Amino acid sequence: MALGPLTAEQEDAIWAQTWRVEGLMAQPLTGWLLHSIGLWADKRAYSERLVKALGVTSKTWEVGLPRRFRKRQQVFENLASYIHQSQAEMMQECAERRARALERGARALADYPTLPPCNLFHLTLGIAGGGRLEALAVALDNVSTATVHGVVQRNELPAAVVKVAENAASVLPQMLQPQPDLDPGLDALLLLMAQMDHDLTAPMMANEGKIGSLISLLIDAPGEPKRKRVQHRLLDIYYALAIEAAGRELPERLPTVRELEDALLGGPPESGGQSLVVRWRNGTKALREEDVQSMIAHVGQATGKDLSWTFRRLYAAAQVWGRIEEHGADAVGIAGRRYIQWWNALCNQGRASTMWVQPYWSLFSAPA
């Protein structure tokens, strides 16, 4: 999958591959989003979760969703019930946003039961920040809906994404141009990530007139001769957040493997085998959602601070970048420059861009 525009057939294939079921019609614009979510767990784990959530057998799921309206409706009612049961585990504000996303999906399914409900942006990144992030996600879902119904043609999507930013985020007209050579779904995802970045870092900045970017630290400058994988950088950022949560000063160098193990995992493997940190950093082992949850639990126990929301949002961004990295340095450069364009355009909320002051953060190169 290149960075160029995806066809409807390619997006359908991504959905079928991720969920391990044939015959799914993808929500337009969401190929890259779902492609990155596919890194959170192995595919079998996703299908097993869905089988449980939907209340069907594995065999039924693998042959596709029920064709009869009543049975199909029951499947989605089971899914809604399962998600509502998990709401108690979420922050109240996040849970309320997810409830709104589910309600939108339910209405769409009731009106058009054979079409995708087009609420995936709202249901995922749309719940991960403030009101403007949610508004952007809903607006992008609405563009997907318009595409499903033929109101918006696929060749109009690059311009439609920019128009969403202008209407829902007050980005000045003509500040950013459509990128017809970039998949519009990826462009939409970069826009949402940039707003999520603002929502993530604003509470960390003592000066309310300034704003810095954490997600940009995951991105390498185009053309760097030695480029660290995004998971490598993510662990270094996690380390810094854990150290600060413990009330300690950040060092002026990046951490060793042992320091990462102590801060994030409670020490090296008891078995004496190869470090998980080493394997995550060199790519021989995927960094899964359950691994991040273990780090969150350890840091919380060690420091008394809950970094769950921060860790999870950075992890989501890193998984997107991991998919982009699969296409090489040129792809990273293209996406990195576009991300920074979006982030700068969103500096219209009363905060001006600034660099992080601690020397530790200067060890991460930011995109040009």
Describe the structure.
With 368 residues, the chain is mostly helical. The chain is built from 16 helices and two strands. The protein has a two-stranded parallel ribbon. α2 packs across α15 (308-325), α8 (131-148) packs antiparallel against α9 (157-168) and α9 packs parallel to α10. 36% of the residues are buried.
Topology:
Elements: H1 8-19, H2 31-37, H3 43-54, H4 58-62, H5 69-85, H6 92-111, H7 120-123, H8 131-148, H9 157-168, H10 184-201, E1 210-211, H11 230-245, H12 257-264, H13 276-282, H14 289-303, H15 308-325, H16 329-345, E2 352-353
Parallel strand pairs: 1-2
Helix pairs in contact: 1-2, 2-15, 3-5, 5-6, 8-9, 8-10, 9-10, 10-16, 11-12, 11-13, 11-15, 14-15
Task: Jot down its keywords.
2 strands, two-stranded parallel ribbon, 368 residues, mainly alpha, globular, 16 helices
Please provide a brief summary of the model:
Helix content is 56%, strand content 1%.
Rg of Cα set:
21 Å
Q: Please bin the fraction of helical residues.
A: 55-70%
Series of secondary-structure elements, N-terminal to C-terminal: HHHHHHHHHHEHHHHHHE
What's the N-to-C terminus distance?
Answer: 25 Å
Strand content: under 5%
What is the tally of helical segments?
Answer: 16
**Count of DSSP E strands?**
2
Low-pLDDT residue spans: 83-90
Nearest-integer average pLDDT: 86
